[in-house]
Write a structure and sequence with these properties.
463 residues, Aspartate Aminotransferase, domain 2, four-stranded mixed beta sheet
């Protein structure tokens, strides 16, 4: 056995101290004991209503706007279940719009967080990073087969860094291409890329962005040809001015619309011919398709110049190949991530890589098929109430009623009160979307959620 060269370090001695293991064991046993009652949906406790409403009001006043859901968690959950401060227990099938892929109060993540709490600093950054960061970026480079990885604190920062890398590589080109109905983020730069005017109300334009129509699965050949024509028109109108095109391979905010390999390949070949960098935004898709990376699922490895990941990894990252390696000074952050997020990311990646999640017989493909079949049967029983399902992998959606945004929003809130958390996606039609916690969800959970969906749908149509 190879000798550990770092065995003499104080940190190694602390990590292997039997008192630490015993303390962690006791803590995990305590959590498990208090999770026993969190195994099914529960309504709110009426005795807590006044105090809960006061909490919501205080929070809304302090943050300057009310919460989208009346949700304040208690700090404990059990797999797909989460307890709120009003005493209710709900199925969390949206996971904070993505991060909680292993559900709530997962023992492996609690253990990693305890280890992080014993580490010397809460945050790691450009000047001082620990061995955890070395292990994480190495793992991500190996899994992606990309040569470089830069950690950061949010998906928006990962995408901002991607744009900076592309602009420097393609200078003096300064324009950006993106798809219609895309969502890239809410930073100053990304509000100009995101194709949603409501998100940039009162914000001056930042950069030059032109849009290309996305794939239409109902008309694949024509939509591909149309996208190619629009792209070529942009390139002809602004020759040598485009630095980068942003790719959401599955449009999440747009309504869970996946593209196709043929569609993306047709566009990417033209971009390569015109020296436009290809940036694939996987903040939401990473880990959720039947391959670890969506660009791998669609077979686009030869085209990817820059890839961003985040959400389920807790700490976010920008991956890039050596021909896009930035010059010193372009990327530098006081915070690249908290030690707890970095340690959790390692645990989550190990689970995804070694837990039989991917491929046609992997966990994600099976869960998607099961959930999709349940929703399809529901649609068959109630064809006027539900259309779908839509999406791919752990990203699943359906259109309720006629897809009216206001009615869909009301349904999502009613579903929340009934015990299932989802979120809205798209506009005309608007859809109910789920980001299922694939790491811990079971078919029994899906059965229960679909039953609640059906009850809520039918209740809303009763006189």
């Amino acid at each position: 056995m190879k000798k550990d060269p770092f065995a003499s370090l104080a940190a190694e001695a602390l990590a292997t101290d039997p008192r630490i293991e015993q303390a962690k064991k006791l803590l995990l046993e305590a959590v498990k004991a208090h999770q026993k009652g969190l195994t099914e949906v529960k309504p709110a406790n009426p005795a807590l209503k006044q105090q809960y409403d006061e909490l919501l009001a205080v929070f809304a006043e302090c943050r300057g706007s009310k919460l989208w859901f009346p949700y304040i968690g208690s700090g404990i959950g059990h797999g797909p279940f989460v307890e709120l401060m009003d005493g209710s227990v709900k199925y969390d099938f949206i996971n904070g719009i993505g991060p909680h892929y292993l559900g709530h109060s997962h023992p492996a993540l609690i253990s990693a967080s305890i280890d992080a709490a014993l580490s010397d600093t809460i945050m790691q950054g450009q000047l001082q990073q620990n061995y955890d960061s070395v292990e994480l970026v190495t793992l991500l480079c190996q899994a992606s087969k990309m040569e470089h990885c830069f950690l950061t604190t949010s998906g928006a920062m990962a995408n901002d860094n991607a744009l900076k890398i592309a602009f420097q590589k393609r200078y003096p080109a300064y324009r950006v291409l993106a798809f219609d109905h895309n969502f890239s983020g809410r930073s100053l730069a990304l509000t100009s890329v995101t194709d949603k005017p409501a998100y940039r109300e009162g914000i001056p334009p930042f950069g030059y962005v032109d849009y290309v129509p996305f794939f239409d699965a109902t008309n694949p050949e024509e939509s591909t040809q149309r996208a190619v024509e629009v792209l070529q028109k942009h390139l002809s109108r602004h020759p040598k001015e485009y630095a980068v095109m942003c790719f959401e391979l599955v449009q999440g905010e747009g309504g869970f619309y996946p593209g196709s390999k043929e569609f993306f390949t047709a566009i990417m070949r033209i971009l390569k011919e015109n020296n436009v960098s290809i940036f694939i935004d996987e903040i939401q898709t990473f880990g959720r398709t039947p391959a670890l990376f969506a660009f791998q699922y669609f077979g686009l490895e030869e085209f990817a110049d820059i890839v961003s990941i985040g959400k389920l990894t807790q700490v976010c990252a920008t991956l890039f190949n050596k021909d896009h390696r930035p010059r010193p000074g372009l990327l530098s952050q006081t915070f690249t991530g908290s030690t707890s997020a970095i340690r959790a990311a390692k645990v989550i990646l190990h689970e995804l890589i070694h837990g039989n999640y991917y491929g046609p017989e992997g966990k994600i493909a099976k869960l998607h098929l099961y959930f999709a079949e349940k929703l399809a049967k529901l649609s068959k029983r109630h064809p006027k109430l539900i259309q779908g399902p839509f999406g791919v992998g752990a990203m699943i959606a359906f259109t309720p009623f006629d897809g009216n945004a206001q009615r869909t929003t009301q349904f999502i809130h009613d579903l929340f009160q009934a015990g299932v958390m989802s979120f809205i996606a798209g506009n005309n039609p608007s859809r109910v979307r789920f980001l299922i916690p694939a790491g811990i969800v079971t078919t029994k959970d899906i059965d229960a959620v679909v039953d609640i969906i059906e009850t809520t749908l039918t209740n809303e149509t009763m006189p």
